[in-house]
Every structure is written in structure tokens, then in C-alpha cells.
Amino acid sequence: MASPVIDSHQHFWAPAGEEHYAWLSGPFAALDRVFAPGDLRPELGANGVTGTVLVQTWNGLSETWDFIRTAEETDFVAGVVGWVDLTDPKVGETLAELQASPQGQWLVGIRHLIQLEEDPDWLLRDDVVAGLKAVEAAGLVYDFVPNMPQLRACVRTAEAFPGLRFVLDHISKPNIRERDFSEWSRTMRGFRAERGHVWCKLSGMVTEADWQSWTPQDLKPYVHEVLDIFGVDRCLFGTDWPVCLVAAEYDRVIDALKECLTDLSEADRAKIFGLNAVEAYRLPGFSG
Fold first, then answer.
1. What's the distance, CA 44 to chain centroid?
2. What is the mean pLDDT of residues 225-243?
3. Would you say residue 1 lies in a domain?
4. Phi, psi (5° rounding) for residue 110?
5. How many structural domains compose the chain?
6. How far apart are the first and last CA of the chain?
7. Domain holding 227: CATH number?
8. Structural domain range at position 262
9. How confident is the model over 176-218, as pLDDT tens digits?
10. pTM of the predicted model, to two decimals?
């Protein structure tokens, strides 16, 4: 049986003037429209993608409920990374309610847009730590989505929770456009000791590069550094569709990553392009 190909990071949205989509303006204005399963399905078929992980787009519980219902109704969504209020003393009850719902099996992880918080150490707050304990007790993954100011807090959080599975989104968004590497690399290496329970998504890179002129060679040093830090068993393929569309079509994102991984064996590429996502998220329908 062929190994699954899992796009570990994609989104849907229907902006409709919601204030949490205010960023869909300026250079992102082309994305200010509905993106639904029917928009993505042809891309998956054309590129041999077996399933996806649908990831939150704003800090709101209603979206989490919508997304697990979408997963129930959509043949290719293999899991959902949703949002809950980690600072709510009753967050454990909220997670239990989500998981006990008819669509609860699809909730595989939790994420908060920490880069929108004024405090770069938001993750280290006592109330957030209590919320992360609830995520761990629920058996879910926690997705980090930092920019550079929040990255050190992510490393410290991974150290503090050795029993919680973490996934680092978008290789933490280094400034590939300006070829910033040293500070990003030094901080990322803090995850090396934690890679037994931390995975990293090789995603979101094309939008951190020059949108008009990037090539796979621009991405390759970052990909290889992540591979050195996390190892082939802890890296995941993701497109960040439809955000990626400002810089590249779906197939070009995939082809660029394949080019960055040409030196790996077929078995190792199979891990990155699917098997590792199944393991990290314990995807229903794919896990043994």
C-alpha cells in the first residue's frame, strides 16, 4: 500500500467582513474571498495528496466547532487543529465537550495565534500553562505559531511539557526574503533536545521569501537546518494553502519542497510527506 500524502497545514475561511480577517487587505487582498473544500479538492487530486490537516485561522471557538463539522462532511480532511481559550479555568470542560461531540474524533490539536499577543512570553503565563495542561490531559497536540519574538517562549514551553506533543508551524517564519538566518537558527536549535516530542512543519516558507522572485534554492538552507535540528522523523510537509497563493500555486509549493529534499531516500521523503503527520496528530482513519 502506498504511503499517505498529508498536507499538514491548510485553511478554509469565509471572511464576510469579520474583523478577525482584517489582514486580508493590501498585498493579501486577493485572498479576501471564500475558500472552501471544493476549491482545494482539485489541487489535492492533481498532486496525489491523500488528506489534510485543517488549521484554525482566528482565536474563536465557533470556528473550531465549524471545522470539526467540516471534517465530518469532507472526505479529505483528516484532522482539525482548532482553538480554545487556554486562559479559561473551564478549558478542560470545553475540550471534553468538543471531543464528546459526534464530530469530536476530528479534533487532533489546539492552536492560539500567539504572535497577536503583546506579551512575547504569553505562553509562559500561569493561566496559559494551566490551559496547556488541559490540552495534554485531553491527548491533543499543541501547535506553536510564533514569529521570532515568541520563539524562545516556545522552546521553554516544550522543555516544560515533555509529555505534550508539539508541532511548530512554518519553521517559525524566518525572514527568508532578507536571508536572516543566524538568530533564527540559534534559537531553533533549542528544540534539538526536545525533538522526541516536537515536530516542525516545512510550511509557510514561500510567503516569507520574495513573492515574485523566490526559488527553491532560497528555501533550501532553512529546510536543511530544520532537518538537522529535528531529524527526518520530526518534519512535516504543509502548504499553508490558501495563504501560499500570494507567492505560489499549490503544485509549485510541493515541487519546491521536493527539490529541497532530493538528497533524502524515498523512505525518508515518505515520512515527511505523510507518515510523520499521521504519527504527530494521530490522524483518525490513518493511525493503526
1. 17
2. 98
3. no
4. -130, 145
5. 1
6. 14
7. 3.20.20.140
8. 6-281
9. 999 989 999 999 999 999 999 999 999 999 999 999 999 999 9
10. 0.97
